[in-house]
Write a structure and sequence with these properties.
145 residues; alpha/beta; five-stranded mixed beta sheet; 4 helices; 7 strands; 30% helix
């Protein structure tokens, strides 16, 4: 798996971030937590998402899906806002049919939160930024109980 290049929102330095690292990615320059945004597929989902050391926000999407393209920047922003607390994992349903079947993805975008290998929240369809933020915060709060 190739590391993702992530620009630090604090200092602007570009960092190589492995998709399946232990711990949380931090900037090599300023040492602050980095947003963790990766892609996964049928062959590496377990390692990247289900064994993630932080809660994983899964985005099942497709390039041809208009609502997916609308939700994607909102999810990227949530990953930046919650750097060090979540990992955003993007799954292209056209390239990962086994995952789509395994998680019974009927509509896209479908979002899930996975904590310690368990799905703790799920939502299908596009939603406004405020609703997605509230849904994610509720899922993360509920996973701690």
């Amino acid at each position: 798996m190739e590391p993702t290049l992530i620009k630090c929102p604090n200092c602007g330095k570009t960092n190589r971030v492995p998709a399946d690292a232990g711990g949380r990615p931090r900037c090599g320059s300023c040492r602050l937590d980095l947003p963790w945004i990766v892609t996964a597929g049928d062959h590496n989902f377990t390692l990247i998402a289900e064994r993630s050391p932080v809660p994983a926000l899964i985005d099942f999407w497709a390039a041809w899906c208009g609502p997916c393209r609308m939700v994607s920047p909102v999810l990227d922003k949530l990953a930046v806002e919650r750097a060090g607390r979540i990992k955003l994992v993007k799954v292209d349903v056209d390239r990962s049919p086994q995952l789509s079947r395994r998680f019974d993805v009927q509509a896209i975008p479908t979002l899930m939160v996975i904590v310690d290998g368990r799905v703790v929240a799920r939502q299908a369809g596009a939603a406004p930024a405020a609703a997605l933020r509230s849904w994610l915060d509720g899922a993360l709060a509920g996973s701690r109980s």
